[in-house]
Amino acid sequence: MPRFASVFWDYYYTNDTKFKTDKSHKNAWCNACLERRVVVLQELDRARVGSGELEGIRDYEDLRVAAIEHISPICGKPERMKSHLKNCKSISDDDRTVALLSAQSAEAKSKSRFPSSSYQGMMRTAIMRSRRLLEMLPPEELQAEFNADLYQLFVAVEFPWSMIDEPTFREFMHTWVWADVDIPTRQDMEKAYIERELKHKASDIRR
């Protein structure tokens, strides 16, 4: 499976079962579609409580399970997941943009990797640059540079944006990263990604 498929799983749920007779790809449920169905089921429960058919509205987990039963999964192939996200009426425009742009970038990078020597040189330069920044930059500029470098790291190694909000990751960063900078959130990273891609698109159009 191409590595760029990993960016889509932030937007899908799987129970790790295989899709029909496909032995290579999992069942995938769009999270946005599931959430929309949960809201519908919740309203139905509320109406049934009002009419006396139910004693109470089911909790979220039960509604989520019911939503999964009501919605047919799609095949977890990256092309199929991408196609659904393009046309999904449940997902927000911002999430759709982030998902598709992230996939586009990851797919391009999977076709063209840095040679190991170039990558090592880039890392050495980055380390030396970071040390100089620690000594020279004021706090607000240091924070901006840190955010930019962390963003480049996530793009280069194709980490999902959701990883930055994981408690274990944030604990690691707080332990080993200097105290003069704050760890950005997923929303910060996605905003930076959208802004960069829009600038690239605008530049391509001007050409």
Characterise the protein shown here.
Helix 1 (31-51) crosses helix 2 and helix 4 crosses helix 8. The protein is globular. It is mainly alpha-helical and 207 residues long. It has eight helices and three strands. It folds into two domains: 7-111, no CATH class; 131-205, no CATH class. The model has no long low-confidence stretch (mean pLDDT 81).
Total beta strand runs:
3
Question: How many helices?
Answer: 8
Oligomer: single chain
- Main sheet, how many strands, which sense, barrel? 3 strands, antiparallel
For the CA atoms, what is the radius of gyration? 21 Å
Keywords:
mainly alpha, 2 domains, 3 strands, 8 helices, 207 residues
How would the blueprint of this fold be written?
Elements: E1 12-13, E2 27-30, H1 31-51, H2 60-70, E3 74-75, H3 78-87, H4 93-111, H5 116-136, H6 139-157, H7 167-176, H8 186-206
Antiparallel strand pairs: 1-2, 2-3
